[in-house]
Write a structure and sequence with these properties.
197 residues; 9 helices; 0% strand
């Protein structure tokens, strides 16, 4: 078998990215069950067979869209200083404001995924468990350094920060001009964390 043409892999990567971008729009508009493979293929101007060449199923498409966003978020966290891990959530909030379609997708799919039969139910459950554990450790480190202003249990602080971010993002999707997610998250953290300690 001959070697692939020099531009073949780049073209394949480009097509895959176009498919994933189309998925964000399709899933944001109709949720997982409302979007169809036919709609996604049509939006990218390829056949359904061409779409299936890149992704085996709609569930695989959705998982890849969500995983790509998680990788971007993880990259932001990796660049943070140990003492500033909590502040990375502000950077994530800033980054999310640039992609409302993706945030809308996360909101719709996470609501649908509450039922056990949804293909991303386990992905979402694991994500929340991992985030809760991560934030609990961060708050524990901050308490150890004397930087927490409150005596609230660490697990509860983790739950509250997740709820604040998720809730603010949903409100922002309804009315972006009325809600500033990163400013509001910063205000919440200012009430919990002492920057001067």
């Amino acid at each position: 078998m001959g070697a692939a043409a020099p531009g073949a892999y780049a073209k394949t990567g480009e097509v895959r990215q176009k498919i994933l971008d189309a998925c964000v729009e399709a899933f944001s508009a109709g949720g997982f069950h409302g979007a169809t493979m036919e709609d996604i293929a049509e939006q990218v101007s390829i056949s359904q067979a061409g779409l299936l060449h890149h992704f085996d199923s709609k569930a695989e498409l959705l998982a890849e869209v969500l995983a790509a966003h998680e990788r971007e978020t993880a990259a932001i966290a990796r660049e943070a200083d140990d003492l500033d891990l909590l502040r990375t959530h502000l950077e994530v909030a800033h980054a999310n404001e640039a992609c409302p379609g993706l945030i809308q997708l996360h909101s719709i799919i996470s609501s649908e995924a509450m039922t056990g039969e949804h293909p991303t139910h386990e992905l979402h459950r694991a994500r929340y468990d991992s985030l809760r554990l991560h934030l609990t450790r961060v708050f524990a480190e901050l308490r150890g350094r004397g930087r927490l202003k409150v005596d609230t249990r660490l697990e509860i602080l983790a739950d509250l920060l997740i709820a604040v971010m998720d809730g603010l993002q949903r409100q922002w999707l309804y009315n972006p001009s009325a809600v500033d997610v990163s400013t509001d998250v910063e205000a919440f953290l200012a009430g919990v964390v002492d920057d001067e300690a």
